[in-house]
Write a structure and sequence with these properties.
- The structure is a single chain.
- The chain is α/β, with parallel strands linked by helices and 371 residues long.
- It has a single domain, classed as P-loop containing nucleotide triphosphate hydrolases (Rossmann fold, 3-Layer(aba) Sandwich), CATH 3.40.50.
- Helix content is 53%, strand content 6%.
- It has 17 helices and 4 strands.
- A 4-stranded parallel sheet has the order 2-1-3-4.
- Helix 11 packs across helix 12.
- The longest helix has 27 residues.
- The protein starts with a helix and ends in a 6-residue tail after the last helix.
Length: 371
């Protein structure tokens, strides 16, 4: 088993760099490396994850080097931000793409998070080789475009503070659920400042379902943040989420055989804890910073949903952006990319199991979960 020090040394040797920047990532790395042995034990799969870890360490070194050389370009602070969260498969991605139609928002694209440095530039990003290397993707499970937004979790991966739900490391995920995320949020802001340094604006539109577990630390890092929380019936959410996790795991680790029933049990423990933690954090952060949105309303009247969000955030929705949103909603209506098939039984679950696990959530937010 390769140890943490060896992975760090390899990343340094590959780059000729040594400074990983802000502390706080080391414990997550140690925990993740430890989980490879306790949770996986398959040499080929372990080697694949170790390669992934080295790639993340390399990116972190490159980001820190860029920050040192270009520190004067990072002075402009984050505006907002406006943050979308909620359980996966509740419309977070669709809402992210809808709001991203407004040029007042800055959002992260997959191609720039795959290689954050040097940051893209407004005048040349359309010709950026990183962008040109991305092929358009049609996915029944997700809205996906070359220039569309992607989740923040790619930044948190570089801080070893992502839940790692796609990887078969449940012991790490269990630790992560109750860990302190403050250092990861400081690194998150550092990366956003890099990205908007040459490509404004600096009013960020962010999205990650896993902010359910990180609201206290996120709101402390960004006191002006406002949060839009999406909702859907958990009986539909949970098996759909399991299906996406299973597909993503097969792509990332084709040699690993996931037991769908075990995956279902893990999800039934993980996500009820997430909505419970989020509900508790909301009370501490302040309910005035949160707006609840039903996936049903987003699908039936996307523009009206956007109007509610803009009113909540104190922003102006122009007629031009409203028209673009209306066109987007028509082009991306439910089922337009095909049908995503799943059922609770595929993962050893029943609707009764799910409703029992989410009983408190349904009692509090059931009005937003009606199909």
């Amino acid at each position: 088993m390769v140890q943490t020090d060896a992975l760090i040394a390899k990343a340094r040797a590959l780059t000729g760099l040594s400074d990983f920047g802000l502390d706080g990532w080391q414990q997550g790395l140690e925990r993740l490396v430890g989980a490879l042995e306790t949770d996986i034990g398959d040499d080929a799969v372990v080697a694949a994850v170790e390669d992934l870890i080295v790639t993340r360490l390399v990116k972190r070194l490159e980001i820190e080097e860029w920050c040192k050389v270009h520190s004067a370009e990072m002075d402009h602070p984050i505006e907002g931000p406006l943050v979308i969260l909620g359980m996966p498969r509740t419309g977070t991605t669709a809402l992210h793409h809808l709001l991203a139609l407004d040029p007042k928002f800055r959002f992260a694209r997959k191609w720039e998070l795959d290689q954050p440095t040097p940051p893209p530039e407004s005048d040349t990003e359309v010709r950026d080789p990183r962008r040109l290397s991305v092929s358009p993707e049609r996915n029944v499970q997700h809205v996906s475009t070359v220039d569309g937004p992607t989740e923040d979790r790619r930044i948190h991966e570089l801080a070893f503070n992502d839940s790692e739900g796609v990887l078969p490391v449940p012991s790490f995920t269990k630790w992560w659920r109750t860990s302190d995320h403050s250092a990861a949020m400081a690194f998150h802001e550092r990366v956003l400042r890099v990205l908007h340094s040459r490509r404004p604006p600096s009013r960020w539109l962010l999205k990650d379902p896993l902010y359910l577990f990180q609201l206290r630390e996120f709101s402390a890092q960004y006191p002006a943040a406002r949060f839009v929380v999406t909702h859907r019936d958990p009986v539909s959410v949970l098996p759909s989420t399991c299906s996406v996790i299973l597909s993503s795991r097969r792509l990332r680790l084709p040699d690993w055989k996931t037991d769908p029933v075990e995956l279902g049990r893990e999800a039934l423990d993980f996500f009820p804890d997430g909505v419970r933690q989020a509900a508790e954090a909301r009370a501490a952060v302040g309910e005035d910073r949160f707006l609840d949105v039903s996936q049903r309303d987003l699908e039936t009247d996307a523009v009206r949903t956007a109007e509610r969000i803009y009113e909540f955030a104190g922003l102006e929705l122009s007629g031009q952006v409203r028209a673009a949103m209306d066109r987007w909603a028509v082009e991306n209506k439910p089922g337009s990319r095909g049908e995503h098939r799943y059922s609770p039984e595929d993962y050893g679950l029943t609707p009764k199991d799910i409703r029992r696990a989410f009983a408190e959530y349904i009692e509090q937010f059931g009005q937003y979960c009606v199909a």
